[in-house]
From TrEMBL:
Subcellular localization: Nucleus
Name of the featured protein: MYB binding protein 1a
Family per similarity comment: Belongs to the MYBBP1A family.
Compositional bias (Basic and acidic residues): 713-725, 1157-1168
Region of interest (Disordered), residue spans: 1-25, 704-727, 916-948, 1154-1337
GO biological process: cellular response to glucose starvation; circadian regulation of gene expression; intrinsic apoptotic signaling pathway by p53 class mediator; positive regulation of anoikis; positive regulation of transcription by RNA polymerase III; regulation of G1 to G0 transition; respiratory electron transport chain
GO molecular function: E-box binding; RNA binding; transcription corepressor activity
Keywords: Nucleus
Source organism of this protein record: Neovison vison
Matching InterPro entries: ARM-type_fold (IPR016024), DNA_pol_V/MYBBP1A (IPR007015)
């Protein structure tokens, strides 16, 4: 904007001159555009965009003080106009921007702004259709003045704004209570003196008017708080909580609740009434009569939500003595009913909002634990027939102070021991009241529900304390749960505090089961990742060790405490041996410390389970102790031969059976412990132990698995059973009627007597009852089988944890190889029946273990021992199974398994010892090894087609330095693979893939095989080459071409061939591809089109290989075949879908030295450019361009002939040539590329004969003698009668373009401008130019 000042001071006649416009004009337009865009962005619905536009507008006005006044006036006018736009979402945006503008520029008077608003949106002159936008414009204008923060300081503007708001309040149909709310908000910010002066004008001296609306009442409460003397002088003494005013207060609060129904917030008038009642000491009257007996009786949910919000807001304001009044009345009971009944998804739930109120209260009074405890206990006492309505996991408990938390845990324990049902705020829903069942209202049911909730709340409290490390409190809760799960008191003793706890209601067995399950959940929480408690146990013992010590203490006090299930002598001996084993594990060496810790945790867990199931756990303890003793004295075993020795003790198998038994229990803690223990003992795993794990995944070995397999057909079986039952019922019904028929074909007309009818009714009743029982029995059996299937699948998912640990911890173990086929069987079965979510989980986990942890693992077995032959048989079996699958995705798993075994066989140390490495000679490479050559240095001029010139036989890259020993490429690539055994396997699979109509094998499978095992790829290439042509289907020919196209450029495959073999292979493939290209362009089906595309792609790959390695391959036949098919691939005769085929064709022709001709349409468009003279274009444009451009044109006029003469004359200067001479020069030169004929590059002494072979581009560039067929290639003959230049043409002339492309680019631009003069001329000058053309003959 600073550039506008000098621009405006320019002379008026400056615009009339022919010179250029002022430079500031474009910048001014850009800044104005930017300034105007601010107002568009202010009205956008995105808040960030609005705020950013407002900030930019203010920064724009501040940064330009010289134009800020003018722009500020326009901005003010624009914002005032925007207050009354029709879009409702844009009005608040303009109001906010206006407030920010007035706040930033305090020199703008508010009275003038308010006057502009009233003049722009005059309510007296506005039309009826625009009344509503005008009303809102005035309202948002006053709000903008208030939000600027200057309104309360300007008394004149304040009085005018108050008067305007009073006028707007009369239009209740449009604005409703918004003007009154704005008035209250404004007056709440003004000083007391100003409010005292304005109060008589805004508040009527009538109590009925005050209690008529929430806004007037709120204004009254504001005045009573800030200017009570003035209010008393105006209205007199007022008691709002009198008997006659309470109904009015209830109606006002109901109206306020309805007004904030959408906003879901607490009205300010309700909170002001609450504070007024607390100041005047009338809170009990307000709460009882206004809230509970007034609003709650209205049966209006917005009023109920207002009461709930009032309860949450009142918590910080109440004392400990006032809290019971609000937490034990009808309101808190109504809140509990809402918590129970609000279960539908679309139904509004107040619980999250109440949690925020309680959390804010607890955070705000952490220094007052008594009030914290009182509130939390009060909410816990809200029960529905004994069951608290709050969830067992309540996040706000984390905000309790340590003292309050300890008191809350003590209250929960006391409630569990001696429930006080009278202190509960209990209720029943309407549906529960309708059910007149005496068992639902008994105290026993309420006590059971309360105790169940309390024990779960204790466990969840410990879960929240787990991060706070309150070890004493955690231990107290754990001891409490353990004692009441498995023990009972005979005689109290001070040594065991739990024995002094007495029950007011006896503890039922079902309650102990709940406590037991909660205890093991607590054990899972405190034992996560073997969590230690350094503050309590300096030696770092786990949490379970404390519980074992506590259990041993309880067992030693048999006079005071007795287990619920007393131990036998054998069980007690098992417990004592376990303690002895634990002491031995603690004394282990540092090397076995990790394994000892895992066994220790397992002993702790099984020892605690001894109290839950003594018989089973006693046997497990004995077996575990035996396994521990043997495992700590054994060394790791890794080879299969050692694992199969009969002297191996079976302790690993026993331990695996124990872990499987633990995994069968639905406990996450058991699952974690089993994983940890198995990770330490999997190194000792034997084939028999592994088979125990695999039997779980095999349905044939599992018990009763056949029933589970046929459950999918059980519905049909049940239907057929019902049909048979109906038939049997008809026969039985006939028997019940005395042998007569049932279809109404009774021959006799005799009627049955009463006794016979009664007997018949009894028989029919018994028959139908029996039939009903049979149907129910079938349904029960079906549900039983379904549940068994669910449990079995869940058990299999858990057992997969052990397999995952094995392949992760011991990937080099030979036993891992035995996992391939069992995992594949699980994947195959799950893919067939993956209907349920559990089946999908099993499939996903198995596939993840197989793919990521097994096949893609960096480590694998390097010593398979004597099982080498079995691995080759397994590879053959897997490849055959991959070809038999019905789905390619399933076949991929089998093929990947075969590739994994090939990887193992390749790196097998047993077989790899046959090929010993030889030392590398110091002087030169090995004679039989492929030669390695480095690229030549880059020449001064750039290479053609962007490729570097390499010497022959350069397919082998430079080896890395530092390698002292090398094998031959074939031996190094094959490793320990026996190609005589592997090649027939994959050869048959490849043949099947290239011959079968529907094969599950795919191209990426074999490409993966070729890239990983190039030596095997070398053996399989003849099979692929055989199917490129011949009797194979077009689809299979295309697949064979794709395989060759992707495999040939690989470096690893090239290393497997000697130079003569490689040239022979390329020639053989080229012959096959040439045979395919004879029918190019004749494709009718989609597969034939794909075959043509693949053949051309393979040809381009071959040509690229030939050029890069400079192989001596005859390309004459390929060039002849391609040229013979050129007419079929013309763009005019082909469809648009075959453009890719044309592109591949000309890519191959370009590699053979033939450039693609230009299209006719493009040549026709370039004709005027060639024929038009640049000099005539300059004359035609003279006088029409600006003066600043004419000087540049003179420079170009002299420079163009010099540039033009450089490529044509070897030396000397030539005069500037005209357009005619250049055209004659182009005509004299030979044709560029007619019908795909190669362009001339330099003159040659002899012409090219038709039998001469094609040359590669590199050989053309160097002009070296060709080695194809021993003949020397020649260039086409030069045109007669024309002297050819002796100097080489630049590279731009080599790309196949005509010599006209060497013209200067600036000349081309001039000719283009001369052909379109209307782009640079005005209307009058255009007319003059047309008259001049008309005068010419």
């Amino acid at each position: 904007m600073e550039s506008r000042v000098p621009a405006e001071s320019a002379s008026p006649g400056g615009a009339a001159t022919s010179g250029p416009r002022p430079a500031d004009r474009e910048g001014l337009l850009q800044q104005s555009r930017e300034f105007l865009d601010f107002f568009w962005d202010i009205a956008k619905p995105e808040q960030e965009t609005r705020l950013e536009a407002t900030e930019k507008l203010l920064a724009y006005l501040r940064a330009r003080p010289q134009v800020g006044a003018r722009r500020g006036k326009y901005a003010l006018k624009r914002l005032i106009t925007g207050l009354g736009v029709g879009r409702e979402t844009a009005r608040p945006c303009y109001s906010l921007a206006l407030a920010q503008l007035l706040q930033s520029f305090e020199d703008i008077p508010l009275c003038s702004v308010l006057q502009q608003i009233q003049e722009k949106h005059d309510l007296q002159k506005v039309k009826k259709a625009m009344m509503r936008p005008a009303l809102f414009a005035n309202l948002f204008g006053v709000l903008a003045l208030f939000q600027s923060g200057r309104l309360v300081k300007d008394s004149e503007a304040l009085l005018k704004s108050v008067k305007l708001l009073q006028n707007l309040a009369q239009h209740h149909n449009h604005l409703q209570e918004q003007p009154q709310k704005a008035l209250v908000d404004i007056l709440s910010e003004v000083p007391a003196a100003t409010l005292q002066a304005i109060l008589p004008k805004v508040l009527k001296a009538d109590l009925n008017s005050v209690l008529g609306s929430p806004e007037h009442l709120e204004l009254f409460l504001l005045a009573q708080q800030k200017v009570p003397e003035k209010l008393k002088e105006l209205i007199g003494p007022v008691n709002l909580f009198s008997d006659e005013n309470i109904p009015r207060l209830v109606n006002v609060l109901k109206t306020a609740a309805a007004s904030v129904k959408k906003e879901r917030k607490l009205p300010a008038v309700a909170l002001d009434l609450l504070r007024l009642s607390l100041r005047e000491g009338k809170f009990p009257r307000f709460w009882k009569e206004v809230v509970e007996q007034g609003l709650l009786k209205k049966q209006f949910w917005p009023a109920s939500y207002l009461c709930f919000r009032l309860l949450g807001a009142a918590l910080p304001l109440l004392s400990e003595e006032q809290l019971p009044l609000v937490m034990q009345g009808d309101l808190i009971r109504h809140f509990g009913e809402h918590m129970v009944t609000a279960k539908l998804p679309k139904q509004f739930k107040f619980a999250p909002e109440m949690n925020e109120y309680v959390g804010a209260f607890l955070e705000g009074c952490r220094d007052d634990p008594e009030r914290q405890l009182a509130v939390v206990v009060a909410f816990t006492r809200i029960t529905n027939q004994g069951l608290p309505v709050l969830p067992t996991f309540w996040r706000v408990v984390r905000s309790l102070s340590p003292h309050a938390l300890k008191g809350y845990v003590a209250w929960l324990q006391t409630t569990f021991l001696r429930p006080d049902l009278d202190s509960l705020v209990d209720f029943s829903t309407s549906n529960q009241k309708k059910a007149q069942d005496a068992s639902l209202h008994g105290p026993e049911r309420a006590v059971f529900r309360l105790r169940k909730w309390v024990i779960l709340r204790l466990v969840s409290t410990v879960d929240a304390l787990h991060a706070e490390k309150e070890d004493d409190l955690i231990e107290e809760v754990a001891r409490f749960c353990f004692f009441h799960s498995f023990f009972e008191t005979k005689k109290p003793t001070s040594q065991i505090p739990e024995t002094e706890q007495q029950f007011s209601f006896p503890l039922e067995s079902r309650t102990r089961e709940v406590v037991s399950s909660a205890f093991f959940s607590l054990l899972q929480t405190v034992s996560t990742q073997f969590r230690l408690a350094p503050a309590r146990t300096p030696d770092g013992q786990p949490w379970t060790h404390r519980l074992v010590q506590f259990a041993d203490l309880l067992l030693s006090h048999s006079r005071n405490v007795t287990p619920l299930t007393p131990f036998t002598t054998q069980q007690r001996q098992a417990w004592d041996r376990m303690l002895q084993t634990l002491k031995e594990l603690e004394a282990c060496s540092a090397e076995a410390k990790a394994k000892a810790s895992a066994f220790q945790h397992l002993l702790f867990l099984v020892g605690i389970y001894l109290f839950k199931s003594p018989a089973e756990s006693c046997e497990l303890l004995a077996d575990i102790q035996t396994c521990i003793q043997k495992s700590l004295g054994e060394k790791p075993r890794r080879t299969r031969s050692k694992a199969a020795t009969p002297q191996e003790p079976p302790w690993v198998e026993v331990l695996v059976e124990i872990l499987l038994a633990l995994l069968a229990q639905p406990s996450h803690l058991m699952r974690q412990v089993a994983r940890t223990v198995f990770s330490h003992v999997c190194v000792h795993l034997t084939p028999r132990a592994l088979q125990l794990i695999l039997d779980v995944l095999n349905p044939e070995k599992s018990a009763d698995e056949d029933n589970v397999v046929v459950t999918d057909d059980s519905e049909k079986q049940s239907e057929s059973g019902e049909v048979r039952a109906r038939r049997g019922g008809r026969v039985d019904m006939g028997w019940a009627t005395g042998g007569g028929t049932v279809d109404g074909e009774d021959d006799g007309d005799e009627e049955l007597g009463d006794e016979a009818m009664m007997a018949l009714d009894q028989n029919l009743a018994s028959l139908f009852a029996e039939q009903k029982l049979r149907i129910q029995a079938r349904r029960d059996e079906k549900n039983k089988l379904r549940k068994e299937k669910v449990l079995r699948r869940d058990f299999q998912i858990r057992v997969l944890d052990l397999i995952e640990v094995l392949v992760t911890k011991q990937p080099e173990n030979p036993l891992v190889l035995e996992l391939l086929e069992p995992l594949l069987d699980v994947i195959r079965r799950s893919m067939r029946t993956s209907s349920s979510k559990q089946e999908q989980d099993l499939l996903h986990k198995t596939a993840r273990i197989f793919t990521h942890h097994l096949c893609r693992s960096r480590h694998y077995c390097h010593d398979v021992g004597r099982g080498l032959g079995a691995l080759y048989a397994q590879v053959e079996r897997l490849v055959q199974q991959a070809g038999r699958q019905a789905d390619a995705s399933l076949s991929l798993y089998y093929f990947n398994a075969a590739l994994y075994l090939l990887r193992v066989l390749k790196g097998n140390s047993t077989a790899a010892t046959v090929c010993k490495p030889q030392k590398k000679e110091k002087a030169g490479p090995k004679p039989g090894a492929p030669k390695v050559s480095r690229p030549r240095p880059r020449k001064s001029r750039p290479q053609e087609r962007g490729c570097r010139v390499m010497e022959r036989k350069t397919a082998v890259p430079v080896p890395l330095p530092g390698i002292t020993q090398l094998l031959s490429p074939v031996a190094q690539a094959s490793g320990g693979l026996d190609l005589s055994l592997v090649t027939p396997i994959f050869s048959s699979a490849l043949t099947s893939f290239l011959t079968k109509r529907n094969s599950p094998l795919t191209v990426p499978m074999f490409l993966s095989l070729f890239s990983r095992h190039p030596v095997l790829c070398k053996s399989l290439l003849p099979v692929v080459i055989q199917h490129v042509t011949g009797q194979a289907r077009p689809r299979h020919q295309a697949q064979a071409c794709v395989l060759l196209q992707k495999a040939l450029p690989t470096r690893e495959l090239r290393l497997c061939f000697e130079d003569p073999e490689w040239e022979q292979l390329v020639s053989q493939i080229l012959v096959k591809v040439t045979e395919n290209l004879r029918t190019l362009g004749e494709a009718q089906s989609k597969s034939e089109q794909q075959q043509e595309l693949s053949s051309l792609g393979l040809l381009n790959t071959l040509l690229r290989t030939i050029h890069q390695e400079k192989l001596t391959v005859d390309l004459t036949g390929v060039l002849g075949v391609l040229q013979s098919q050129q007419q079929r691939l013309q763009p005019g005769g082909r469809s648009a879908s075959c453009s890719r085929l044309c592109n591949l064709y000309w890519q191959a022709m370009k590699a053979l030295g033939v450039q693609r001709p230009k299209s006719e349409k493009k040549e026709a468009r370039e004709v005027p450019k060639v024929t038009q003279s640049p000099l005539s274009a300059k004359r035609k444009k003279k006088g029409f361009l600006p003066e600043t451009k004419k000087r540049k044109k003179r420079k170009l006029e002299g420079a163009a002939p010099a540039e033009e003469a450089k490529p044509t004359a070897p030396g000397g200067d030539q005069p500037p040539s005209t357009g005619k001479r250049r055209r004659r020069k182009r005509k004299a030169q030979g044709p560029t590329q007619a019908n795909g004929t190669p362009a001339t590059k330099r003159p040659a002494p002899e012409a090219m004969t038709p039998s001469a072979p094609a040359k590669t581009p590199k050989l053309q560039e160097k002009q070296q003698p060709s080695q194809v067929n021993g003949a020397r290639a020649a260039s086409p003959a030069a045109p007669a009668g024309r002297k050819q230049p002796q100097k080489d043409l630049p590279e731009k002339g080599v790309s196949g373009k005509s010599p006209q492309s060497a013209l200067p680019r600036k000349k081309a631009r001039l000719s283009l401008a001369s052909r379109s003069p209307t782009l640079l001329q005005s209307g009058a000058k255009r007319k003059k130019a047309s008259l001049k053309k008309a005068r010419k003959p």
